[in-house]
């Protein structure tokens, strides 16, 4: 542990951010998994609903700085492609 007061505070804030980011990422993985499961089950309405929610969660994570905007865009695109494969 650091001896400098500002560095002690920095360590604490980094830990808090790490935990918050971990929670965000865990929630993202959960919603992405729900979309995948809905597509695998062949349930188009559930897949569309979960896709909408997952997209919102990804956008929120980008605005909070948890993930990069390109990563969110790639994930949304991949999920949308899978969901759209149900309708065709």
Would you give an account of this structure?
- This is Small ribosomal subunit protein bS20.
- Pfam families: Ribosomal_S20p (PF01649).
- Belongs to the bacterial ribosomal protein bS20 family.
- One of its GO terms (molecular function) is structural constituent of ribosome.
- Binds directly to 16S ribosomal RNA.
- The protein is mostly helical and 88 residues long.
- It has a single domain, classed as Methane Monooxygenase Hydroxylase, Chain G, domain 1, CATH 1.20.58.110.
- It is 88% helix and 0% strand.
- The protein is built from 3 helices and no strands.
- α2 packs antiparallel against α3.
- The protein is elongated.
- The model has no long low-confidence stretch (mean pLDDT 94).
Order of helices and strands: HHH
Class by helix and strand content? mainly alpha
What is the CATH homology-level superfamily? Ribosomal protein S20
Give the terminus-to-terminus CA distance. 58 Å
Radius of gyration: 17 Å
- Total beta strands: 0
| Tally of contiguous helical segments | 3
The shape is: elongated
Biggest pleated-sheet summary: none
């Amino acid at each position: 542990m650091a001896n400098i007061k500002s560095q002690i505070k920095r360590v604490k804030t980094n830990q808090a951010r790490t935990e918050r980011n971990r929670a965000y990422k865990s929630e993202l993985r959960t919603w992405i998994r729900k979309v995948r499961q809905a597509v695998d089950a062949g349930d188009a309405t559930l897949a569309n609903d979960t896709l909408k929610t997952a997209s919102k969660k990804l956008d929120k994570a980008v605005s909070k700085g948890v993930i990069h905007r390109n990563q969110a865009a790639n994930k949304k695109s991949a999920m949308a492609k899978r969901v759209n494969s149900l309708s065709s």
